[in-house]
Amino acid sequence: MSLYPSYARPRSLQQAVDLLSGLQGGVVVIAGGQEILPSVNYGVLMPDVYVDIGGIEELIGISSVGDELVMGALTVHRDIQGHADVQRLAPLLAQSVSAMGGGWQVHNRGTIGGNIVAMHPLYDIAPSLLALQADIELIDAAGTRRLSFADLLADSSHGLGTKAILTRVFVTASPQSSWGYYKLKNTSGAYGSANAAAVLETEGEILTAIRVVIGAAADQLTLVSDALAGLTGAAYDAAAGAEIERICAQAIGTPLSDHQGDGTWRRAMAGVVARRAVEAALLPATGPDS
Amino acid sequence: MEDLLEQSALVQWRIDGELHELEVVPGASLLDVLREQVGKTGTHMGCRTGHCGACTVMIDGAVAKSCIAMAATLPRATITTIEGLTAADGTMHPIQQAFWDAAGLQCGFCAPGILLSTAELLQTNPAPNDAEIDAALAGTLCRCTGYQSIRRAVGEACVRMYPDAAGE
Amino acid sequence: MADSPDGDLKYVGRSIRTKEGRAPLIGKAKYTSDYAFAGQLHACIVRSPHAAARINRVDLSAATRVAGVRLAMHGADVAALTDPIPDYLEPALFGGKAAAHRCLAIDEVWCYGQPVAVVVAEDMRTARYAAARVQVDYTPLEAVVDAEAALAVGARTIVPGWDDNLLMHVPFMHGDTVAAFESADQVVSTEVKIHRFSTQPMETRCYNAVWEHNTESITLYGTSQNPHPLRLVLAQTLRMPENKIRIIASTIGGAFGLKMHGHPEEGLICLLAKLTGQPVKWLESREECLLIGAREQKHYIEMAVNNDGTVLGLRDRFYANTGAPSACPGWGMAFLTGLTMPGPYKVRDIDVQMHAVSTNKPSWNAARGYGKESTAIALELAMDNVARQLGVSPVTVRLKNFIGKDEFPYDSPTGLLYDSGDYAGAVEKTLQAIDYDDCLEEQASARESGRYIGIGVAFELTPEGGAIPGSMVVGYDTSSVRVGPDGTVRLLTGVTSPGTGNATGIAQIVADELGVDIDAIEVLQGDTNASPYGFGNYSGRSTIVGGGSAALAAQDVRLMIDKVAAALLEVERSSLVLQRGVYTSTADSSASVTFAEVCYAAYTRAYDVALCIDPPLEATRTFRPPSIRHTPDANGNINPYPSYSNAAYATVCEVDVQTGQVKLLKFAVTHDCGKVINPILVEGQACGAIGFGIGGALTEDVRYDASGRQLTRSFMDYVMPRMSDMPPIAVEHHDMPNPGNYLGLKGAGEAGVGGSAAAVVNAVNNALQPLGVVMNELPLTAPRVWAAIQQASVAPTPGGDQ
């Protein structure tokens, strides 16, 4: 906590990692600032050091290699929304990024890396990444490592601590799958009360795989996959929808209870958004409804 | 590597057409620097949490909330404030004129967000529908108008900027 | 930009926004926080984290040690140099309790967020950093949070020395309610809970006080709706003569009542400037702004009704949770809620018991609607309940009970004198605007496909331009019109603009009265050293009394100019014609002189052609609406309002019964504000107020934990409507001119909050009627609506499925 914080703008990842490894506490890594500045402005956060990674070119940009989509951590939401590679390889991600709040102003500045690192339970990107079985890449003094987004979530320090930097996000497209995203919020300006990303595989009318991730209903993401296995091998119908709703609501351990809604409702809504995301996935002709 | 640490940061900004070189304090928002160091008081503080949009500016042509952009993280940038929409001779931008003529404002405090977001929208979309206008203006709160006159003024601005597109 | 008057084409009635329009759109308007002066210092306030606590000790030493800190003070320091802040509106005038309002708390804090200490530093960051170092030792006390619990026997009294927490109890009674209830076919009971929601203008409050060394006086640049009355309050608080204080209320970024005075920071910042000898600025954070409350009321209503829908009697016992005592006029909203019962309905036998209760929640300030919105919410929800119980249309019940348009002027049972209106006509227009019959068909077919569409109607009576005897809430105001030797006009008025555009409306009136181009008029408001003594902006009064007084002043000046013109042209005054800035005469076709030449002559030829007038071309006039009556009638009642604006609302919503989400599909309003000076400004007022009502009905909510700590601290939690939340609003006018006011003006601005909120709630209840859901507790957030649906589906309520 300092009235006179210091500031560094490393020009390369190596410089940034070296710097972070040498610093003690009170360090904040900043890029778009959308997550950090509100806390700084409210006096909740008073860092001693800002490490600005915004100048590191290696972290910016979207590319694709075959079916794999690669996004630098500093890629802003607006670029993800409209990028042809994302639309082609991970339209679910584009959809969920478009559902984010804050308006164009925030979409133009906020980065995918910042959104992930914030680990805010109400945000939109994480459910899609988990549903898409994304990988992420980290760098610290020990070097670069790639791990699944699920493993990152499972790690209590999110694998990052104050020494590591999230560098890239990878999503591998599965052409035979369909997807849906559904976000529920009280009103346009509200944060999410529950959201769900669904990825399905079908053969004709028959569901062959189903994977749903629910966000904003609990303080951590809820992946529902095995519990839904009983629904595969048949076509989707209203009864299946009701079953998805029941199973997904039940899957929520301790629901959140906050300004976005009480726990009982959040649990129930987890089921509703899951079913609606699945239904959106099954209706590609009319486009996702979110 | 600690020699990278500085007590301030130097930034070079073209603000509303004018070049400024400034030394900014780490942690200071773009909003505070614009208002306090540059005198661009047309950009307003409404919440400091990035919700209201009264502090909106354009950074390199894209709208941003200046209250949650840290000044130091923008070493070089072109910044357009609401004041920069107006021509040097005082002639209003067609969007400003449309909002004036259609009374698309009341107190005017939210105008930076409303006008600059409209500007970004109309740069690429000469005839936005209601949903597109909603999306473009979703980041800005207006408490006076109930948005009805704003929607009308955006429509009027389209007509002024793209007279040929009207009626298509 | 505007055309000059052309023949019969006048400014009044036209949709223009000439004044206060260009500057904000080019980013050049100067709001209070835009002022910065040489040597500018910044203040940061330390606030209580407890709802109720004893202050044992305030240690400022760690703060004063921070480099750049110029001054730090606690309550006792400030109390030694100031007197308590006088009430904007004294509860004692109405038989209520008194409390000493201090700039900083002294021995006890009464609410979360109450100012306890202040730090002044060379920049804002330093001030905030140092403020975080102020150590306050508190002993928390049991917090009294709920209004009814605050009145329970044994409840802790929040103000030492009070015998209970009842700030005020006022009965509003008329006729024989007991007989009415005995003779009625049925009694319909409705409990209505109105939550705490706030006005939250986009510009927060800001005060920048400058100590003027040459005159040893203070200039306060402040977000004030009422600069002159604030000046008196500051004079008393600061123990200074009033003529040593100047207030400049610059461009205001929305006010809605929140910038009426009584706030502790007003006097405090002035004191800090005086003590430091330097300008001191305080800019309210959004978190601080969210502390300012309003509206929270619980109503227990009973209506005595006959089976044909006639309401014979009204009983309402209600409790307003007005928070900690404050010098702001917020508590008066509760009084107005009672006073304006039973609204537009011809119910003569009433027994309304108003309880304004003090609690450890933060204080109220005035909020758009000023209590009348709560009257509308309570009554309109109750009327729908009557309709449901009787199984008749909500429209029918209202039409059955409205005061007829031929019954005005109408003496209300609380003593008000309604000037004019056609309530049934306004409702009919509204139903047409929303295609009511089509909506009913759509609703029926939607129900068959499992969709829940609802139609809600509501009515709202919003008396405007209020005046309370013995207070600085007055019914009149004053304007000066000054025409210079070049024919341009300076208009000064005692009413201020909170950003509504009223300067344009008033200029339109003056342009027509003077016969000049509106661009030749400059309007100045809000500077106590320039404007005539005035009372500012509240109660939808600005155009009624600002416009009315400016019209009178303009008429006086026009007469002077006409006289000089007649003398110059050597014709009879009655033969003059002024068109496009040129005087001609019907008596002499060769006679012609410009308006500007006449004005020049009025100044320069005082000994020949202008002998007929007293220069300069200036007049100051007051408009005092004649229908306000402060002499009590036989029942002891006064009529504090000159005009009774009213409006009818209808909305259509769809409820997603799986989630509880409410989506508004259509909205219509018919507004009677008397003569419409400028349709676009009136429509702007109506739509803005409807935004408040919709937000309040559905999402906006300030919440507390059980210990009285405020949980709602930013716009993340206080969710106001965005553009996509607002349905298109059809605005209709139904003008029934006020016979007593200039041009028949009634006032606009307050109508919209309560009526629209009630229409939304009624629409949701209408949508969910097949499920047996009735909700009379606001706001109707998705979780609440969903929970109500769940509850109803578990235990269907009797008479639910119709």
From TrEMBL, chain A:
It comes from the Bacteria. Keywords: FAD, Flavoprotein, Oxidoreductase. Residues 1-176 form the FAD-binding PCMH-type domain. SUPFAM superfamilies: CO dehydrogenase flavoprotein C-terminal domain-like, FAD-binding/transporter-associated domain-like. SMART domains: CO_deh_flav_C (SM01092). InterPro entries: CO_DH_flav_C (IPR005107), CO_DH_flav_C_dom_sf (IPR036683), Diverse_Substr_Oxidored (IPR051312), FAD-bd_PCMH (IPR016166), FAD-bd_PCMH-like_sf (IPR036318), FAD-bd_PCMH_sub1 (IPR016167), FAD-bd_PCMH_sub2 (IPR016169), Mopterin_DH_FAD-bd (IPR002346). Pfam families: CO_deh_flav_C, FAD_binding_5. This is FAD-binding PCMH-type domain-containing protein.
UniProtKB/TrEMBL annotation, chain B:
It comes from the Bacteria. InterPro entries: 2Fe-2S-bd (IPR002888), 2Fe-2S-bd_dom_sf (IPR036884), 2Fe-2S_ferredoxin-like_sf (IPR036010), 2Fe-2S_ferredoxin-type (IPR001041), 2Fe2S_fd_BS (IPR006058), Beta-grasp_dom_sf (IPR012675), Diverse_Oxidoreductases (IPR051452). Coiled coil: none annotated. Residues 9-85 form the 2Fe-2S ferredoxin-type domain. CDD domains: fer2. SUPFAM superfamilies: 2Fe-2S ferredoxin-like (SSF54292), CO dehydrogenase ISP C-domain like (SSF47741). Keywords: 2Fe-2S, Iron, Iron-sulfur, Metal-binding, Oxidoreductase. This is (2Fe-2S)-binding protein. The keyword Amino-acid biosynthesis does not apply. Gene3D superfamilies: 3.10.20.30, [2Fe-2S]-binding domain (1.10.150.120). PANTHER family: OXIDOREDUCTASE WITH IRON-SULFUR SUBUNIT.
UniProtKB/TrEMBL annotation, chain C:
This is Xanthine dehydrogenase. The lineage of its organism: Bacteria, Pseudomonadati, Pseudomonadota, Gammaproteobacteria, Cellvibrionales. InterPro entries: Ald_Oxase/Xan_DH_a/b (IPR000674), Ald_Oxase/Xan_DH_a/b_sf (IPR036856), Ald_Oxase/xanthine_DH-like (IPR016208), AldOxase/xan_DH_MoCoBD1 (IPR008274), AldOxase/xan_DH_MoCoBD2 (IPR046867), AldOxase/xan_DH_Mopterin-bd_sf (IPR037165). SMART domains: Ald_Xan_dh_C (SM01008). Residues 26-142 form the Aldehyde oxidase/xanthine dehydrogenase a/b hammerhead domain. It comes from the Bacteria. The keyword DNA damage does not apply. Keywords: Molybdenum, Oxidoreductase. Belongs to the xanthine dehydrogenase family. Gene3D superfamilies: Aldehyde oxidase/xanthine dehydrogenase, a/b hammerhead, Aldehyde oxidase/xanthine dehydrogenase, molybdopterin binding domain. The keyword Protein biosynthesis does not apply.
